[in-house]
Design a protein that fits this description.
- This protein has 535 residues and is an alpha+beta fold.
- It has four domains: 98 residues, RNA polymerase II/Efflux pump adaptor protein, barrel-sandwich hybrid domain (OB fold (Dihydrolipoamide Acetyltransferase, E2P), Beta Barrel); 79 residues, OB fold (Dihydrolipoamide Acetyltransferase, E2P), CATH 2.40.50; 87 residues, Dihydrolipoamide Transferase; 216 residues, 2-Layer Sandwich (Chloramphenicol Acetyltransferase).
- It contains nine helices and 32 strands.
- Strands 23-32-31-30-26-29 form a six-stranded mixed β-sheet. It has a four-stranded antiparallel β-sheet with strand order 1-8-6-3, covered by helices on one side.
- Strand 12 and strand 13 form a beta hairpin.
- It starts with a strand and ends in a 7-residue tail after the last helix.
Length: 535
């Protein structure tokens, strides 16, 4: 089925965009991650990637033309597919193309027109309206994970206003304006559609009561904080004889617990239940000092849970967790997986790493060596560096390796672009930088896109051997276990050696068993003889 691509909102203030250059023309084959066009926004000229695969069937906005956000930009689908209905349904006479979901957009537009009219006619001087931004091409709604500013706070351009969960990641959202935060339109934990009113910023003391803050909320999401936990007597048996509990009613409103993001993280690290903490911040909000000074059972009434009561802890699924579940499910049940495992002799790799790290200015890990070996093996076995489509097998001529990184809310896969051209130290530096960004929620969607192969390493956790689900649309993923010291046979005698098991998961539609086995043989040669990777 054809996919309609609309003019994206590439910045918070963008209302229209100009197509500077098309990198594809009608009839060209488009792969996921290909650059379709360069688009001029009100801030910069940016490359716009395709999130779909197929043939570029229609271009709705020619080079040099300007169109509103959500105007029809292009249509991608199967070669020869009839899209006349999509085109005629999105254009009329000399009007700019409309969005695919015209009625839904019209309803949203009508609801915002009154606000726009109010803003244009009655908006006080210096007041700026901020809407829920589209932080990825596929984002349709966002959840406010936490507000870093509260109403009445002074805001400077560049300050972080809030953390917003998208379908891909939780991202910090900066203010493009300076002034006072006059109104918050979407509370913490609430989900709203893109373009819903998020906040109002302007001069201190400005009356904004006449500006509507009503926003279209998602019908599928209740206003429950992202980190909120609810307890229901269901399943988990507690072994303690007595469990002291208190309820800090001063920081609970409508079942919600108000706490700063830092306080939540500290409470989680220390194993403190937020419902037991009395907040000293505004409106009973729990802040850092409340967690630091918390003493169990002090300052509140206690109730006791008898032995044997079963409890179940429920945590609301984040947007990231939902997306991970959806994509892994699609990969596991659409791609026929099979697995190949080999055991590697790591003695020479250990010696090589020790020699390299003897230089005080260089520090590499075994994972860096594995990533490099995979990249070089993919050069010799391009059939593993592929993607399946219904019409053809796409063989990537470039090598972009995704490196799985565990984060609090799930798993992210930052991508090393052109990894085969990097040295050990360059791989190590890039992996560390991307991992830090992933764990601190600073990573961008672009840094997680375009992988052609993936490496997942659980060896640092002591896992000897495991299998992974293929990271679609890749055709393979390598699972790396721990290095184990054990007796081995060398030259006909038993000796102490170091071994490591790796398992290659392959999509049988694109990678035959023999091809996967040959890839692992080449990988073995590189890992067991690291000097060959310098040739």
């Amino acid at each position: 089925m054809a996919e309609v691509i609309n003019m994206p909102r590439l910045s918070d203030t963008m209302e229209e965009g100009t197509v500077a250059t098309w990198l594809k023309k009608v009839g060209d084959t488009v792969s996921e991650g290909d650059i379709l066009a360069e688009i001029e926004t009100d801030k910069a000229t940016m490359e716009f990637e395709s999130f779909y695969e197929g043939t570029l069937l229609h271009i709705g906005i020619a080079e040099g033309e300007t169109a509103k956000v959500d105007a029809l930009l292009a249509i991608i689908g199967k070669k020869g597919e009839d899209i006349s209905g999509l085109i005629s349904g999105n254009t009329s006479n000399d009007e700019k193309p409309k969005t695919q979901n015209e009625e839904a957009v019209k309803a949203t537009t009508n609801s915002q027109d009154s606000a726009s009219n109010t803003q244009s006619a009655d908006l006080p001087k210096g007041v700026e309206i901020i809407n829920m931004p589209r932080l990825s091409d596929t984002m349709e709604e966002g959840t406010v994970a936490s507000w870093l500013k509260k109403e009445g706070d002074t805001v400077a351009e560049g300050d972080i206003l809030a953390e917003i969960e998208t379908d891909k990641a939780t991202m910090e959202f900066e203010s493009f304006y300076s002034g006072t935060l006059l109104k918050i339109g979407i509370a913490e934990g609430e989900t709203a559609k893109v373009d819903a009113l998020l906040a109002i910023i302007g001069p201190k003391g400005t009356d904004v009561s006449g500006i509507s803050t009503s926003a279209p909320k998602s019908s599928s999401a209740e206003a429950i904080p992202v980190a909120e936990k609810r307890e229901t007597p269901i399943s988990e048996v507690k072994s303690e004889t007595t469990i002291p509990q208190t309820v800090a009613t001063t920081n609970i409103e409508g079942g919600r617990i108000f706490a700063s993001p830092l306080a939540r993280r500290m409470a989680e690290e220390k194993g403190i239940q937020l419902s037991l903490v009395k907040g000293s911040g505004e409106n009973g909000r729990i802040v850092k000092s409340d967690i630091e000074n918390y003493t169990p059972g002090v300052g509140s009434a206690q109730t006791y849970t008898p032995v044997g009561v079963e409890r179940f802890e429920e945590v609301k699924n984040s947007q990231m967790r939902k997306t991970i579940a959806k994509r892994l499910g699609e990969s596991k049940f659409s791609a026929p997986h099979y697995y190949l495992t080999i055991e590697l002799d790591m003695d020479h790799a250990i010696a090589a790493r020790n020699a390299i790290n003897a230089d005080p200015e260089v520090r590499i890990s075994f994972n860096d060596m594995i990533v490099k070996a995979c990249a070089m093996a993919l050069r010799k076995h391009p059939q593993v560096n592929t993607q399946w489509t219904s019409d053809a097998i796409r063989i990537a001529k470039h090598i972009h390796i995704g490196v799985a990184v565990a984060v609090d809310e799930g798993l992210l896969v930052p991508v090393l672009k052109f990894a085969d051209q990097m040295s050990f130290s360059q791989i190590g530096a890039n992996v560390k930088d991307l991992a830090v960004k992933a764990r601190t929620k600073k990573i961008t969607p672009q840094e997680m896109e375009g992988s052609t192969f993936t490496v997942s390493n659980l060896g640092m956790f002591g896992i000897k051997e495991f299998t992974s689900i293929i990271n679609a649309p890749n055709s393979a993923i390598l699972s790396v276990g721990a290095i184990v010291e054990k007796p081995v046979v060398k030259n006909g005698a038993i000796a102490i050696g170091n071994t490591m098991s790796v398992t290659l998961a392959c999509d049988h539609r694109t990678v035959d068993g023999a091809t996967g086995a040959q890839f692992l043989q080449t990988l073995r040669q590189y890992i067991e003889n690291p000097v060959t990777m310098f040739v």
